[in-house]
Amino acid sequence: MINWFKILLTLIKKDLKIEIKTKETTVTLCLFAIVIVTVFALTTENNSLINQSFGAGIIWSSVIFAGSIAMVKFFHHEEQNKTLQSLMVMPIPSEIILFSKSITFFIFVSISEIIIFLISSVLFNLNIFSLKLFVASLIFNIGYSVVGSFFGIIASKSSSKEILLTMLLIPIIIPLLMFIIAITNDALTSNLEDNFQTWLSVGISFDIIFITVMSFLFGKILEE
Amino acid sequence: MEANSKKILSLKKIFKSYEANVVIDNFSFDIDYGESVGIFGKNGSGKSTILKICCGLLQPDSGSISVMGKSFSSSEESLQIKSRMGVMLHDDMIYPQLTVKENLVFYSKILGIKNTTENIQKISSLLDIDKYMNVQVIKLSNGNKRRASLGKSLLNDPEILIADEPESNLDDKGKEIVSKVLSNRRKRGLTNFFSTHSKDFLKECSTKTIKLNGATKL
Fold it and tell me: What ipTM, to 2 d.p.?
């Protein structure tokens, strides 16, 4: 019997090995995230006001924009070298390819978030470290990585990759953004207990629905 | 070999167009087990399109295709076909950031090949790329990239090898090696289906040829 988990791991290891050699995606991701957060910090006179008003917005817009740019870079190489085609003629189901890309990107996004959280907590004096926010971030990262990988592959075939990816990705992940921003806002104002369960179910539902739909559609979009 | 059929590849009434350009119009042919079939024709005549249809990368607009008696429309059968097929397209389809060896090890794992080290060693000496095994693909010449790409497609000793211009970018020695690989496979009863622009290569490597006449407009 074919061990799909072993193949999934092989695909992830390959992507990580390439990233360790080139460092392109993680450097792009972290650099953009740092720049966005720092620019906000420099242009705001009283950083302590950020806490209540738009701390969550700054953190997650940094993640989204830096993530979109890194995603384009991540898939551009696959398209340029036609290595995705090479995987398509291998005896592996297309869902395994989507999951491997999503898990690799999940790792990259998580690294960038750790950096953004650390910088934000220093620059804006935010107290954002809580277990509930950590769980919510994981749920956000899963959804963002799966949807991003799906549209990243579509966008990589286009000449206007960056614009197309942003146009496709942002509207789809609005529920996920609402979920994570609401929980982050609550965490910043220490009101995390109030709506946590409701928002958590929104995030989990989004992930389940989109993982199912994207897995089903991925094989079809891989065809030229 | 399939017990009830000597056909390894069968295309029936294939039609494929890209918007208004009809690339393949009502095209049918069969390839028997052990044949070495060369397809030729001018640029844009649909050679690469046919090869991509044969390896399941492209869906025809109409018509049917069966490989080893199986169809790409069933996902289970598609996986069975792909595990017994080798594909080398016009692009090298190997990771430029990795070394040749890392590429071959990666694809061996994906294909579930057991004696990876021995197998890779055998292929590298067959294609004369031993000395480039630890070199990053991006640093190789186009000819050596082509050989590495062929090496990748031979990893599972495929029953059918589909190759799009396997001799392109190669010097005389490289062409000789590729030609030897194809004829050795034929002698072992394995099937080759390749496209080429070179009449000499076609004469040398094929037992049957197909000429394509080119695209038309709708």
Answer: 0.89
